[in-house]
Amino acid sequence: MNAATREFFDGHLEHVLKQLPEQVHRLLDEVPLIVDDHPSRETMRRMGVRNRRQLCGLYTGIPLGSRSVEHSGVPSDVVHIFREGIVAMARDESGAVDPEELRRQIAITILHELGHHHGLSEEELEELGY
């Protein structure tokens, strides 16, 4: 990903973050948001993903409802979002990135991964539109 595309994405990410409700901001204070161009090869292997543009985000950690005292010392939860995957989802039929769709995909990805933090499954998130 080139610097111009990264800057374009990050500008839209900042816009999306400003628009998110205060409850989401409080969650992001507890669960760091990390933005990468794409997932690592190890992450792709672990997730069974062949094309790095297929993955838009990833939650790593222990969902709130599954935690116990036995999980002390476990690395903290993190939400990762991947620019390449999200940009790929925001392309129109001609291959151009639709800025409105990009912002929508960024928001969906962040909310989707925070849903996993709260213990929601892929199926439950899909039913909710995330």
Describe the structure.
- Strands 1-3-2 form a three-stranded mixed sheet.
- The chain has one domain: Zincin-like (2-Layer Sandwich).
- With 130 residues, it is mainly α.
- The protein contains six helices and three strands; from the N terminus they run ααβαββααα.
- Helix 1 (3-19) packs across helix 5.
Question: What structural keywords apply?
Answer:
3 strands, Zincin-like, 50% helix, 6 helices, three-stranded mixed beta sheet, mainly alpha, globular, 130 residues
In short:
The protein has 130 residues and is mainly alpha-helical.
Per-chain topology:
Blueprint lengths: L2 H17 L2 H9 L2 E4 L4 H7 L9 E4 L17 E5 H7 L9 H19 L4 H6 L3
Parallel strand pairs: 1-3
Antiparallel strand pairs: 2-3
Helix pairs in contact: 1-5
Query: How many distinct helices?
Result: 6
Taking all Cα atoms into account, the compactness measure Rg is 15 Å
Largest sheet: 3 strands, mixed
Q: Which architecture name does CATH use?
A: 2-Layer Sandwich
Report the structural category: mainly alpha
